[in-house]
Design brief:
By secondary structure, the chain is of the alpha/beta class. Helices cover about 25% and strands about 30% of the residues. It has a single domain, classed as Spore Coat Polysaccharide Biosynthesis Protein SpsA, Chain A (Alpha-Beta Complex).
């Protein structure tokens, strides 16, 4: 287990394309949010669940945090997670990435280079800032970015130098609709 690192499950989205709360949708018999919890719990001692709304509760005995500002998207969840922990870094995992496993998170941790390290698909070269390590030094700039009205995760990430770790093709595919959950 890694100390001074907080695992963050991002599951506060509105799931418009999915049609219902996708965090509770199942893949191979386990809800997406529970899958994320299980994989994070295998590598970190502290986990925060960024649920977006204060009315959502997904995993018992896990700190749930609500966004501090409306419609801030995933960045709002990351901002809320920074406020909820004293850890130096956040190991961020969006709940709609069901193929991420312990081996992927350990690879990120082994190669951690602050302020930011992202998972990247080896073939497509698509980077995934929601399977990443975010260092505490990003907390204030993130708040300033959100204060300016901006909400783009890639827009924020693009303002920093960051490292990437290549994962096998397809592991970073995220769930956007029910078809994506076909087993």
């Amino acid at each position: 287990m890694i100390d001074n690192l907080c695992g963050v499950i991002l599951c506060g989205g509105q799931s418009r394309r999915f049609g219902s709360d996708k965090a509770i949708a199942t893949y191979k018999g386990i809800s997406l949010v529970q899958r994320s919890y299980n994989v994070l719990a295998s590598v970190v001692n502290e986990i925060v669940l960024a649920a977006g709304s204060p009315h959502r509760e997904y995993v018992k005995n896990v700190v749930h945090v609500a966004d501090n500002r409306p419609d801030a998207g995933p960045l709002g969840g990351i901002e809320a997670a920074f406020a909820a922990t004293r850890a130096d870094s956040l190991l961020v995992l969006a709940s709609d990435l069901p193929l991420i496993g312990e081996v992927h998170l350990l690879t990120l941790l082994k190669n951690n280079k602050p302020p930011l390290i992202l998972g990247r698909d080896r073939i497509t070269k698509r980077e995934q800032p929601l399977c990443a390590i975010w260092h505490r030094s990003l907390q204030i700039p993130l708040g300033q970015y959100l204060d300016s009205g901006k909400r783009s995760v890639l827009g924020f990430v693009g303002t920093y130098s960051y490292s990437v770790i290549d994962f096998e093709a397809g592991v970073l595919i995220n769930v956007n609709n029910r078809f994506d959950l076909s087993e």
